[in-house]
Amino acid sequence: MIKKLLFLTMFIFAAISTYADEQFKVKLDNDNHSKETIELPYCNIFLAMSEAAEDGNVHVSVEMENLDESNVLILFDRAYIEKVLKKMRPSITYDKIFGGTKGRRTIESCKGLKNVLLVPASEKYKVLDLPGKDGEVLVCRIPIYIAKYKGKSMKKLLLLEKQVIELNIEVELKPDEVYLNLNGAYDDLVKELADTVFCTNKRHRPSLEKQKEPYIAQIDSLKKEIDEVIARHNWMSTDKGYKLYDELKCKLDSINLDEREGDCGKHTYSHRCKYCSLSLQQIYHKLDDYYQKIYSSSDRKAAKSQVMNDVNLLYRCCTDATCKRHAREWRKGGEYKSKIIDRYNRIKQF
Ligand SMILES: [Zn+2]
Ligand SMILES: [Zn+2]
Ligand SMILES: [Zn+2]
User: Fold this and answer.
1) pLDDT at res. 52
2) Is residue 139 a contact partner of residue 60, using CB atoms and an 8 Å limit?
3) Is 292 within a domain?
4) Which ligand is the nearest neighbour of the Cα of 272?
5) What is the model's pLDDT at position 295?
6) 193 C-alpha to center of ligand 1: Å?
7) How many domains is the chain built from?
8) Among 141, 180, 208, 280, which residue is least crowded by beta carbons within 10 Å?
9) Relative to the alpha carbon of 271, which ligand is closest?
10) 317 Cα–ligand 1 center, Å
11) Which ligand is nearest to the CA of 313?
């Protein structure tokens, strides 16, 4: 018997808590959609999300406007029984047309109310203030009793019907300006790096280390700012704000400056020496002069070693493929090319 009763109670409870005359899904955010109005035939329900608090908590206020010119809307703070209702001021009783067994009906309370709330005809009252967190769905069940005064004394109210409204309010905090600025700075940095080459060429000034320095400094300063924001909010690692900023920090950490190393292409070697201004003919004559000098010398080895450095310089100036003055002419060949090669080889053989 007890089991049966328990089952029945559970059944009734389940029926009460799941049943609603109308359900509304609402999404509120702190950006463009902080308010929403639900229009019902007998009342308007106004929802407004409060400014986000530092800790990421939000509040949604629920206001109710009674559109009827004669009926009263009542919300109850507790599950009153008929006997208690009758003793209230004004005295409340069920109308004949109201369903259920007379004398055994119980009011369905509205969670979050502190008193019985009467919204008079054509009036707008604040009924609830729902605390919530970013990303949460607040489920708010509002049993509205529609009543009317019996007689003109306004001492007795008759309950005509009950309408249960269920609100599913999803609250979302859009990223704040601080985050958007930091994220923008990250995007700019990535974009800039895509066009940057850190030149590894030894001859490049400034050095590779110095080239990277401003980027490392910028990454460090952005990470420091992120740490400060997290510390300021006192976020736990499970908080949405923490995750958002931490993700940005990870993105900054994953920037690999080494990937942007390479050669800037401005250090291509080209030959330059004191003989570049000479023509191949003039170079030939210089080599020939040296040749004659060594040839006629009493100590050819000594004479050769005296001039060999210069001879090599002259010869390299003709043969170096990057010599701007001679490379093209040398490739084409010609009279002086063979003459120069001949003199050079002869000098070497002394
Ligand atoms: Zn370079
Ligand atoms: Zn040269
Ligand atoms: Zn040259």
Assistant:
1) 59
2) no
3) yes
4) 2
5) 95
6) 16
7) 3
8) 180
9) 2
10) 26
11) 2
Residue 207's pLDDT is 95
Residue 120 shares a structural domain with residue 66: yes
Q: What is residue 50's predicted lDDT score, i.e. its pLDDT?
A: 86
Spatial CB neighbours of 194, under 8 Å, sequence gap ≥ 6:
none
pTM of the model: 0.56
Identify the sign of the CA torsion 273, 276, 280, 286.
Answer: negative
Dump pLDDT digits (tens) for 201-246.
Answer: 988 999 999 999 999 999 999 999 999 999 988 888 988 889 999 9
Ligand of minimum distance to the alpha carbon of 321: 3
- 58 in the same domain as 168: yes
Tokens 């899904």 identify what position?
A: 25
pLDDT at 265: 85
Same domain, 123 and 206: no
Verify that 78 and 160 share a domain, yes or no. yes
Same domain, 150 and 232: no
Distance CA 190, CA 252 (A): 9
35-39, strands of its sheet edge to edge: 35-39, 43-49, 57-66, 124-133
Residue ranges making up the domain that contains 338: 280-349
Q: Give the bridge partners for 199, in sequence order.
A: 262
Same domain, 143 and 248: no
Report the C-alpha gap between 230 and 180 in whole angstroms.
Answer: 15
State the 10-residue block means of pLDDT for the chain, 350 residues long.
Answer: 47 54 92 92 95 73 95 96 94 93 93 95 95 89 96 91 96 86 96 95 92 97 96 87 94 96 87 95 97 95 95 96 93 93 95
Check residue 315 and give its pLDDT: 97
Query: Do 149 and 223 fall into the same domain?
Result: no
* 3 state SS of 299: coil
Domain boundary among 231, 262, 293: 262
- Judgement on whether residues 31 and 163 belong to the same structural domain of the protein: yes
Query: Within a domain: residue 136?
Result: yes
User: pLDDT value at position 20?
Assistant: 83
- How many whole angstroms separate alpha carbon 150 and alpha carbon 140? 31
Give the whole-angstrom CA distance, residue 241 versus residue 236.
9
Which-ligand-closest: CA of 322? 3
* In the block, residue with structure tokens 């023509």: 279
Q: Which of 112, 145, 172 is the last residue of a domain?
A: 172
Give distance in angstroms: CA of 213 to centre of ligand 1.
16
Other CB atoms within 10 Å distance of the CB of residue 295? 12
